Amino acid sequence: MSLLLVAVSALHILILILLFVATLDKSWWILPGNDSLNLWKECLAHLNQSSQEVWECKNVSESGWLKAVQALMVMSLVFCCLSFILFMFQLYNMKRGGLFYATGLCQLCTSVSVFTGALIYAIHANDFHQTAGSFGYCFALAWVAFPLALASGIIYIHLRKRE
């Protein structure tokens, strides 16, 4: 039983790390020349009077869908942290034979938040990034965190506290 608890805790911590890196690092979109963009700044290229390419960066206050992605990724972090705290609380205070429903539900909410945020970004990335480029590793980490959080939530729901 202790090996199972260590494995579930390690999985949860791995998901937390993936979500922190995916949300806070700056590689959601890779531009030519190895420049990258994140969720928090909107940078667009345009030509000035002398036909030179100039980058104009601004906060994402005008992009409603990007604000939704930001909110969903932050919510996924909050749900994941909350579910880990709930797991530790339930582990030490729950009666023998109890199920970790609250923890599993929070992890499932984490999974849904990550999925929705990454999906919205994937659908609207071409609208936002009008230059050539590709998805970065933070985008990939968000997609990796989704099935891990889903599996973790299902494991928590079926996990029963033993002595």
Cα-atom Rg, whole angstroms?
A: 19 Å
Number of helices: 4
Structural class: alpha+beta
Low-confidence stretches: none
Care to describe what's here?
The chain contains 4 helices and 5 strands; from the N terminus they run αββββααβα. The protein has 163 residues and is α+β, with helices and mostly antiparallel strands. The chain has a 3-stranded antiparallel sheet with strand order 2-1-5. A two-stranded antiparallel sheet has the order 3-4. Helix 1 (2-24) runs antiparallel to helix 2. It starts with a helix and ends in a 5-residue tail after the last helix. The model has no long low-confidence stretch (mean pLDDT 83).
Short description:
With 163 residues, this protein is α+β, with helices and mostly antiparallel strands.
SSE inventory with pairings:
Blueprint: H1 2-24, E1 29-30, E2 36-37, E3 41-47, E4 53-59, H2 64-93, H3 101-128, E5 134-135, H4 137-158
Task: Based on the model shown, name its key terms.
three-stranded antiparallel β-sheet, two-stranded antiparallel ribbon, single chain
